[in-house]
Amino acid sequence: MRWSRWLALSLILGFSASSVCAGDRPAFVHKKKFVMGTVFEIVAYDASPARASAAIDDAFREIVQLDGIMSNYKPDSALSRLNRTAHFHAETVPPDLYNVIAESLRYSRLSGGKFDITVGPLVSFWKAVNRGDAPSSADEKMLQSCVGYQKIVLTPPDRVEFRSPCLQIDLGAIGKGYAVDRAVEVLRSRGIVRALVNAGGSTMYGMGSPPGQSAWRVRLRDPSNKIHPEVMLLENSVSTSEQTAPSVLGNDPMGHIIDPDSGSPAKTTFAVTAVAKTATASDALSTTLLLLGSDKGRELVNAIPGTAAIWISPDAQVETVSSGPQIVMASENSKNGSY
User: Fold this and answer.
1) Nearest-5° angle of CA 190, CA 66, CA 219?
2) Measured distance CA(20)–CA(284) in Å, rounded
3) With 50 as the cut, is the pLDDT of residue 8 above it?
4) Which end of the chain is more exposed for a tag (fewer CB within 10 A), N or C?
5) What is the mean pLDDT of residues 180-202?
6) Is 12:43 a contact under the CB 8 Å cutoff?
7) Where do the domains of the chain lie?
8) Alpha helices (runs of H) in 86-119, residue ranges in sequence order
């Protein structure tokens, strides 16, 4: 998975972080936290700055808890334990881990296997290649035999089994989206109705809208710097995926998004943005649509109500599709106020 640094938020209104709006306008509270390997940001409007601040803190605690469940970098996480012990043996897992795996399998079926969380062994293989190690092609072929979402067996309500001796799950293509959705649930439960949750710039969810505005305006990633696409978020989410760019130092590392069909990093220069009703969906779809390409991706978006997507190349090739939300191409004049 990717965590694009380029999905930029345009909040339209002029404000400063942790400020309180004057007059009858609700207070604006803005907080950041480094978790899941990125910076999460939450901004919220509420009549009580203390309530908004406490709600954001609770949302961050939820994200930290999920990191302890879904991380494949922490050896004591629930996912790491599952990856060690679930081969031909059903293991009981926390509800959140079961739910995110179940959602992942749904997108695997929808995409004909292009979205596949079992690429974990191949992700590790190509990371080793990028570090300068030289695993053999035989190693790659063996690891590819480990991959296949059909080898995951779920037994409701909380048991997971791997029907492969070497299968490993990597939730990088959906985990942050799931965490955003859970943070949104926490904010709602604390009475917050106007907020934006931002997972490192790659996935955002807009709750309600800023005061005096109809939605949260988000400037999308544009590798050509010519299209200037935007979307208005209102109780929905947006995510962007793109393959790792070559280093400015001149070396050309393999990308981090793995095509489960070939077992190799996907070869594409497009940035793909997906809009969907949940952050889990937009996160999964952005990677899926990058791997599918615009022709097959268009069919998938049209089959899922309330979604939209845009593919943009560095030379300004553009493809768009929508089953509801609109992605608009902003004029140069509308760029003022974005960052």
Assistant:
1) 75
2) 36
3) no
4) C
5) 97
6) no
7) 78-162
8) 95-110
Round to whole Å and give the CA distance between 170 and 70.
9
Residue 147 contacts residue 263 (beta carbons within 8 Å): yes
Closest by CA to 177, choosing from 162, 194, 199, is 199
Cα distance between residue 85 and residue 75, in whole Å:
12
Give the residue from 36, 28, 109 showing the smallest Cα distance to 66: 36
Exposure string (b/e) for 259-295, b if CB count within 10 Å is 16 or more? bbeebbbbebebbbbbbbbbbbbbbbbbbbbbbbbbe
C-beta neighbour count of 138 within 10 angstroms? 8
Q: What pTM, to 2 d.p., does this model score? A: 0.89
pLDDT in tens, 88-131: 999 999 999 999 999 999 999 999 999 999 998 888 887 776 66
Phi and psi at residue 279, to the nearest 5°: -70, -35
For domain 78-162, which CATH number applies: 1.10.3980.10, 1.10.3720.10, 1.10.1740.10, 3.40.720.10?
1.10.3980.10
Identify each DSSP E strand in 123-270 by its residue range. 152-155, 159-162, 194-199, 203-207, 216-219, 229-233, 236-242
The span from the CA of 171 to the CA of 104, in Å, is: 8
Q: What span, in angstroms and rounded, lies between the C-alpha atoms of 211 and 117?
A: 39
* Side chain identity at residue 207, one-letter code: M
Dihedral (CA of 138, 143, 146, 149) sign? negative
Using pLDDT thresholds of 50, 70 and 90, give the confidence band for residue 24. low
Q: Are residues 232 and 220 in contact, defined by beta-carbon separation less than 8 angstroms?
A: no
Q: Copy the structure tokens of residue 91.
A: 């293991």
User: What is the side-by-side order of every strand in the sheet holding 308-312?
Assistant: 27-35, 38-46, 194-199, 203-207, 236-242, 271-276, 308-312, 318-322
